[in-house]
Amino acid sequence: MIPHPVIGIAILSIAGRNHWLGRVMQQIGIEIMGTVTGLVVVLTFVGLPFYVNTAKAGFEAIPERLENVSRSLGASAAGAFFRITLPLGWRSMVVGMIMCTARAVSEFGAVVIVAYHPMVAPVMIYERFTAYGLKYSQPVAVWLILVCLLLFLLLRFFSTPAKRAA
Amino acid sequence: MIQIHHLTVRLTGFTLQDICLTVEKGEFFSLLGPTGAGKTLILESIAGLVQLSEGRIQIGRRDVTHLPPEKRGVGIVYQDHTLFPHLSVRENISFGIRYHRKSGSHPRRSVDLLVSRLGLAHLLDRSVHNLSGGEKQRVALARALAVDPAVLLLDEPLSSLDPNFREEIRQLLKDLHRETAISVLMVTHDFSEAHFLAQRVAIINAGRIEQIGNVTTVFQRPATPFVAEFVGMKNIFPATFDDSRAQVGKLSFQVRGSKRGQACIAVRPEHIKLFVTPPECRYPNFLEGIISQINNQGVYSEVAVDASGIEFQSILTTSTLHAMNLIPGHRIFMSVAPENIHLI
């Protein structure tokens, strides 16, 4: 619910020299501003809730009784997780990853503040549009649409449960 | 054998209070009670799926109170079958076998026997999604029995089934119990199921045991008004006793035995005899009333009769109802034999 430029500003603030975390990061050689690390941090920050919520909903939908029964049949807690919960829940983890990726691909507001370079697609569209006009930004937009379409197809593929042969 | 000593489970908004009961070796025991009485909680406490607040649980000679579920040797079958949806019938049934391999035993062979006994051989490679309710419940039973548990816990195993499957599974449970001599604890809210299957029952209400005993004893001699109502005594009235007479409002009843002070009388609806005209010979506890309501239930019909402001419930076969030509609002006579009036 936070405006994304604000996220960018917040991340830069704590990664800057005036914050103890920023100083620690500087000492161990991690740089946020204008680096791939910065991109990863920003996109993880905006995308992670999508992953967590989707995976959580998926795992919550698995009846606890299935685990109860598997425990009563002799499976340990770990056994129940790996033989019951994970096989039933991994799809929601994949779906969560796709959602997270889709969110990251479309991010602009926070990225443009933290890491203008190395340039991600939305920033590139913005730069080409402002510098050369609409025509130059269109090819990048088309590529971006194709990527999103692919993600959408993957989403459909993984969110419909597998039908086992009768 | 299962022994539960002073089991107490405190949850937010519900407490299972001081439950003590014993299921003998090879016994079919039933926990009866309305929805929300805490029956399933008792079952899950035995299976180790609930944190106990107080009390001890013993299975056989072992104290299992602090053992994890997988070490208790308890089979559990839930009402909704709870089959593993990502596994085939075969994989469901053999799920627990890898944890129970002992040297010298042949678990596969006993599973094969179980599969053929339960008539599941032709379903083994099917997915569990397209089985009928009865088949699903048979798979759930096979899966629980495949690991040769010391006790079998059944959580309303019949209530999600169609009537024809229900009869089939009910008979199967009875036969399996007889053949395997396993101790069974079944939770149900249906007294007729318990009557058919169980040797002893415990009636649970709001987290407490109301009565434990032989099925017939509980059915015939309920100890509390709640149990009386649960076993189908629809006429329960507070009464003032004076020796062998009970005063209910303006009505006075002759009863068997003697009692003094305040208590309740309870009468089964089928024990209230109805007459259209006063009979010639004298009947004990003869009353006059007005038919206030008739509910046709198909084969049986319930007739409510208002006598001096007290409503009695009687039951007749629908054909008798038509033969007697009973109509709401009409005058009717009734009588209850003193031996059919239970004092609670």
Describe it:
- The complex is a heterodimer of chains A (166) and B (344).
- With 166 residues, chain A is an all-alpha fold.
- In chain A, helix 5 packs antiparallel against helix 8.
- The radius of gyration of chain A is 21 Å and the shape is flat.
- Chain B has 344 residues and is α+β, with helices and mostly antiparallel strands.
- In chain B, 24% of the residues lie in helices and 38% in strands.
- In chain B, strands 6-7-8-3-9-10 form a six-stranded mixed beta sheet, with helices on both faces.
- The model of chain B has no long low-confidence stretch (mean pLDDT 90).
- At the A-B interface, helix 4 and helix 5 of A face strand 6 of B.
Q: Going across the major beta sheet of chain B, what is the strand order?
A: 6-7-8-3-9-10
Helix share, percent of chain B: 10-25%
Strand portion of chain A: under 5%
* Beta-strand content estimate of chain B: 35-45%
**Largest sheet, strands/sense/barrel of chain B:** 6 strands, mixed
Order of helices and strands of chain B: EEEHEEEHHHEHEHEEHHEEEEEEHEE
Structural class of chain B: alpha+beta
Kindly name the structural category of chain A.
mainly alpha
